[in-house]
Specification:
Elements lengths: L1 H27 L1 H24 L19 H8 L10 H6 L3 H15 L5 H30 L4 H12 L2 H8 L4 H16 L3 H14 L3 H12 L3 H20 L4 H18 L7 H14 L7 E6 L3 E6 L5 H20 L4 H19 L15 H9 L7 H34 L3
Antiparallel strand pairs: 1-2
Helix pairs in contact: 2-6, 6-7, 6-8, 6-9, 7-17, 7-18, 9-10, 9-11, 10-11, 10-12, 11-16, 15-17, 15-18, 16-17
């Protein structure tokens, strides 16, 4: 009788254990889940206002790629996130972002299952909502890194997360269609799983990171070298990523365009998108404002007309004084944290990603004029290097750092939200 009772009770006990485990998980992440929900609701509300009260989420002739702060917004809506494509017109995208067209096709097909996809405005809006969801995943993993690996208190984790969320590039990367919000999230997830020594998941993320943006394969490799503790594991993940990437490309419908044009297109992109600055002062200004300032803060906006037909919005090489002060303080503490924590694997990985991006965009001058849109490839690394300040042991220095972090957040609230509202008004009046 006792044996039968035990047999009957086992499934009940197992169910209870699963239930308790789920309950504990929810309880553990209750604060961050609420934070993510709040952020997503705010972003969704902004996107809904843009869709309802402006002309921006439309495919009128005037709205073309690179018209708003150099984001390829309408280009992505038409040529990437669609079921039927002319791959001959997207060779550049195929080479730089090998998986993005295939990924966009899948998203478009899923969208067609749930929505009537005949309205271009709705199509644009659906992609933006999807990007808000991807951004939510990025927030969650950034929180896990700060909490689990950096051992930072909850209140400071949310301060850092809010600085990240209010950054220019995160806001724009959510509202304006491009592949950067996806790339940024994949890099954050890669950092997390490489730190946890999860080889299979890390390999999958390495394949996806490379496929979504080919240059980020180097950033992933840097993180793998710095974060994986066993040299054999580095080799395993590296080989797995190469084989996996090539394996996936074999099944892509546009694989011939990718392989036949790869070398020539890479050379063309490197030459065509490299800034040619003869004036060293202008070069330094572009580096400071576009690469260092604009991923975090809104610069002053310049609205002009191309051939008096197409509206173009660009960032000026200027910013308000509080933004400049906040940026300088931000990087002073990053440098201080690097010096104090240079032997830490987490610091080395973040620093490596940052230096790599500085090499591409400053030394090689690739996309120097579009520094903001590339910011999501290294903003997370900046944020993680900055977050080391909460681990400063000297109480006085730590208090100064906290004041600096709050000041950075205040400046973002003051100018970045204002920047988004100005763009909203501009879109509203964009005829």
């Amino acid at each position: 009788m006792d044996k039968n009772l035990q047999i009957i009770e086992k499934p009940k006990n197992k169910f209870n254990m699963i239930y308790e485990n789920i309950k504990n998980k929810i309880s553990k992440y209750q604060a961050i889940l609420f934070y993510i929900l709040l952020v997503s609701v705010i972003l969704f509300t902004f996107a809904k206002v843009i869709k309802t009260d402006t002309n921006f989420y439309s495919e009128e002739t005037k709205f073309r790629w690179d018209t708003v702060l150099s984001y390829d917004d309408i280009y992505h809506a038409r040529s990437v996130y669609s079921e039927s494509k002319n791959y001959e017109d997207t060779v550049g995208t195929i080479v730089k972002h090998p998986f993005i067209s295939g990924f966009g096709t899948i998203v478009a097909k899923i969208e067609n299952v749930f929505f009537n996809n005949t309205n271009p405005t709705d199509h644009y809006f659906h992609i933006v909502v999807f990007q808000i969801f991807v951004n939510a995943i990025g927030i969650f993993y950034l929180y896990k890194i700060l909490k689990e690996q950096y051992k930072i208190e909850n209140k400071w984790c949310f301060l850092i997360l809010t600085i990240y969320e209010l950054a220019t590039v995160t806001l724009l990367g959510t509202f304006i269609i491009d592949s950067f919000i996806l790339s940024g999230t994949l890099l954050i997830m890669s950092y997390y799983y490489l730190s946890k020594q999860k080889l299979i998941v890390s390999t999958f993320l390495g394949i996806m990171t490379t496929g979504i943006c080919i240059t980020n394969s180097i950033a992933f490799a840097i993180m793998a070298i710095c974060l994986l503790e066993n040299k054999k594991d580095i080799l395993k993940v590296g080989i797995g990523c190469v084989i996996g990437f090539l394996g996936v490309t074999i099944f892509l419908p546009y694989r011939d365009y990718l392989f036949n044009n790869f070398l020539s297109e890479v050379q063309f992109q490197a030459e065509g998108f490299a800034a040619q600055e003869e004036n060293p002062i202008l070069f330094l200004k572009r580096t400071f404002y576009y690469i260092l300032v604009s991923p975090l803060f809104f610069l002053n906006i310049n609205h002009e007309f191309f051939y008096n037909i197409i509206d173009i919005v660009k960032f000026d090489l200027s910013a308000n004084i509080p933004i400049i002060i906040a940026t300088v303080l931000y990087f002073i503490f990053i440098i201080y944290n690097i010096i104090k924590n240079i032997k830490d694997r987490n610091m080395l990985a973040a620093l490596g990603v940052f230096i790599y991006n500085m090499f591409i965009h400053v030394v090689m001058k690739f996309g120097l004029h579009e520094g903001t849109i590339y910011g999501l490839h290294f903003l997370f690394a900046e944020i993680l290097m900055f977050a080391f300040g909460f681990k400063i042991k000297n109480k006085t220095f730590r208090k100064i750092f906290i004041i600096c972090a709050i000041f950075v957040l205040f400046v973002e609230i003051r100018y970045n939200i204002e920047g988004i509202l100005k763009l909203l008004l501009l879109f509203k009046n964009w005829q």
